[in-house]
Write a structure and sequence with these properties.
The structure is a homodimer. Chain A is an alpha/beta fold. Chain A folds into 2 domains: 236 residues, 3-Layer(aba) Sandwich (Alkaline Phosphatase, subunit A); 140 residues, Alpha-Beta Plaits (2-Layer Sandwich). Helices cover 30% and strands 19% of the residues of chain A. Chain A is built from 14 helices and 13 strands. Chain A has an 8-stranded mixed beta sheet, with helices on both faces. Chains A and B meet through α3 of A and β13 and α14 of B.
């Protein structure tokens, strides 16, 4: 007999059950301030999060694996219950999805940086002086007119120096190396170790870069491009197929909208402030079973290495909580996708606080929201990929496994 | 494109970063004394370990899996981040490496016990009365002269009744059963269930045993051999290849030197006392990125079932800590490879205390070193195999995974 290993929780997911809100503060976890011993969350005044902690089962989650610092893509894939290591999403695909570009099966998407090169072709500014988004839009429109034999070419602006190229046609492949050398004083990198099946794509991109360099040669700053994350959309089952929920994403920043779209969530119009996030949830609450709500500022302030501004961002995030509770979700899980300690000014591997509020939660004694308090919470330390099953279970959406 | 699942942390390891010391007290974990309720560590006076606990993030590690008691080989492989179940090292290979024998690819190594048999060939003493090492050396030199057709034969003394045989030649295979019956009153076991590809090796070893029995027949005690752990060196990537560090091992006992050599660490000259361990670290500190330091006495006293001597050994281990801190490592992780409770007088499966000291550690409220205190530490309960990634992350040696 061949017993295939069932995929959980997918195998027991039911169409009926309560409504779930997954509220994510990007980069939520932090590190203690050397002066006070308190992390950003612990230093912040967070009455709503603290009240939530008292009504929740709490713990910490490890985004990918102990010691592993996740990028935004893998961190969110893990929160959504997808194996973040086995299912890597290219940066190009993420950026394309993030601007709402409708990627088709087989499209190759590429993250583009406008850059400045000197007369010898050496990069002097990897971000072309962070040209304004208007300029980026103008240049993208110009490059969008480039024609390549046998494929369609799309060039779309993202923000400042960032844009996206999509090639559409038969026989295209991702996985070519980045041409961004991650350094100045050197020219962009050539493609190396190109596999036979990647040759067509490499050839087309070389032709594109040649045409683009010619078009941009008189630009004072954005006179060159570098390419990153040359990739195709991974073939994965959707959120709806796996968990049998109608899911919606409420987020402002392209990357997170992109990942949510990739797993098949309906991506609602952009929302960023607590008011916008709350209003979007209220407006769509009747139409979906599962909501992913993304709050960005806790991450960006951490990445800036600004402890006080991260504290302020956490206090702003605190005001999202009552707006979410106002719709009366059956399950609310509040967490981050990863830690972004101001002390490191970057993403990190440190476990992230999780509070899960539901009627069936085994509420613990933890009475305030924070890394130290949650370390002794009733959930213990879990993997991010386990959170989806916990949310669905508490919503009554998972049947018994086995007789 | 086929993106194979990347192996973490290998896929993100960088060549630059801070220096790491992994300080292992063998068999560190214990069980409470029935009279006091305190474990060996908790009963010991350990001012340096307690101070370390206050500056560290703490927790417990599970060496192999819950309930599984590890041997020294698997326990150390796990600490080094190698899957201890998928990558089993034969006892023969460990013994050979431990005496500094340069095992080549394809060599078959065998752990040998000198034993005493009676006139009927039944074992009366499995350790030949623990003959002195000098006698073992003399006998090994005698047996080393045995010639076998088509292969080279090496016989080397280890200690007391223990020796090593290595066969070198084409077509040899490990995996034959041990001939030590683990009992007296019965003869050594024959080889059973020999696979076709093992037949040549079995035949050679039978011939060797015949010749050895003839050579030893007049010995009063060591008149027979038993064979254990008939094995070849596993084909695994080295520590340096995986983690991009230059690694050195500082240890006194052959087994641990052997495992460290197997994963490709430079094995420094033997050191055992706190003074020797500290001096070895200081002397080599400039030349390596990663140091594995092994302290043995916490295990041997536990195996003797001697609670008080294990307490004393733990207090001696405590004095290693300041000697290690004196070199100023960026990351110091102090733990054991497994527990060896005096109450059980053997290795055990109980989780082992871990203290990780680094600038980026999320220091918890734990203020003393010990099993009970660390159970509420900020690391939670982790697998031993996760510790390498944590050490490397805290040393700034791991790049972000994914965009």
């Amino acid at each position: 007999m061949n017993l295939e290993r069932p995929t959980l929780p997918d195998a027991v997911a039911q169409e009926s059950g309560g409504k779930v809100v997954l509220l994510v503060a990007d980069g939520l976890g932090g590190l203690p301030h050397p002066g006070t011993g308190l992390t950003e969350i612990e230093a912040a005044s967070t009455p709503n999060l603290d009240a939530l902690a008292r009504e929740s089962v709490t713990g910490l989650h490890v985004p990918i694996a102990p010691g592993i610092t996740p990028g935004s893509g893998p961190a969110h894939m893990a929160l959504f219950g997808y194996d973040p290591v086995g299912c890597v999403i290219g940066r190009g695909v993420l950026e394309a999805l993030g601007i709402g570009f409708g990627l088709a099966e087989g499209d190759v998407a590429i993250r583009v940086n406008f850059a400045t090169v000197d007369a010898e072709g050496r990069i002097t500014d990897r971000r072309a002086g962070r040209i304004p988004t208007e300029k980026c839009t103008e240049l993208a429109e110009r490059l969008d007119r480039i024609k390549l034999p046998g494929v369609e070419v799309f060039v779309r602006p993202v923000k400042e120096h960032r844009a996206v190229i999509v090639l559409r046609g038969a026989g295209l492949e991702g996985g070519l190396n980045d041409t961004d050398p991650q350094a100045t004083g050197v020219p962009p990198l050539p493609f190396e170790g190109v596999a036979r099946e990647q040759e067509k794509t490499a050839e087309l991109l070389r032709a594109f870069l040649g045409a683009a360099a010619e078009m941009l040669k008189d630009e004072p700053r954005a006179n060159m491009l570098t390419l990153r994350g040359i990739s195709t959309r991974p073939d994965i089952p959707t959120f709806g197929e796996r968990y049998r929920v109608r899911a919606a994403a409420i987020a402002g920043y392209p990357m997170y909208r992109g990942v949510a779209g990739l797993v098949g969530m309906d991506v609602l119009p952009p929302a960023e402030t607590p008011e916008e996030l709350g209003a979007a949830l209220e407006g769509a609450y009747g139409d979906y079973d599962f909501f992913f709500i993304h709050f960005k500022k806790t991450d960006s302030t951490g990445e800036d290495g600004d402890f006080d501004r991260k504290v302020a961002a956490t206090e702003l995030f605190d005001t999202v909580v009552p707006r979410v509770l106002a719709v009366g979700p059956d399950v609310l899980l509040v967490t981050g996708d990863h830690s972004t300690p101001a002390a490191l000014a970057s993403h990190s591997w440190h476990p992230v606080p999780v509070a899960l509020r539901a009627k069936s939660a085994r509420v613990d004694a933890v009475d305030r929201f924070g890394e130290s308090a949650f370390a002794s919470g009733g959930l213990g330390v879990v993997r991010a990929t386990d959170l989806m099953a916990l949310m669905l279970a508490h919503a009554g959406r998972l049947a018994k496994f086995g007789a």
